[in-house]
């Protein structure tokens, strides 16, 4: 199913490239170097997770995602992973959006290659992340 915002993005891509309504948009998005809407959602979520993982995000975001600390010394301790949230405990009735972010952000974060998770700056993280998401979507 197509994300509603994708319809707008596809129409804008056709407009920018001056192509008819029936034109396929995947090559257009690739040539414009635009991430599809679903990839943009991943991108924005992971940028928030980066801020939280590095202690620079808003406190309410940092409260939702916590660094993974293994019970004993493991090599994965330096992988800069996030802990999956406990489905028990926490606020009594968190909003669906809060639950969704708290669950998806660590999941998507931990699936990233380690060189992206351990980027030394936000600029480097964003650049590597966009390249990674672009490749995932367009180079299948």
From TrEMBL:
<protein>
    <submittedName>
        <fullName>Uncharacterized protein</fullName>
    </submittedName>
</protein>
């Amino acid at each position: 199913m197509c994300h509603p915002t994708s319809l707008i993005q596809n129409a804008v891509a056709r407009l920018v490239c001056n192509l008819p309504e029936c034109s396929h948009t995947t090559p257009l998005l690739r040539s414009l170097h635009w991430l599809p809407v679903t990839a943009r959602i991943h991108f924005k979520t992971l940028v928030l997770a980066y801020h939280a993982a590095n202690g620079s995000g808003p406190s309410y975001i940092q409260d939702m995602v916590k660094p993974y600390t293994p019970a004993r010394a493991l090599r994965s301790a330096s992988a800069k992973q996030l802990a999956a949230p406990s489905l028990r405990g926490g606020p009594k009735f968190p909003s669906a959006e809060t639950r969704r972010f708290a669950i998806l952000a660590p999941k998507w974060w931990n699936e990233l290659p380690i060189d992206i998770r351990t980027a030394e700056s936000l600029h480097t993280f964003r650049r590597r992340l966009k390249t990674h998401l672009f490749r995932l979507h367009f180079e299948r």
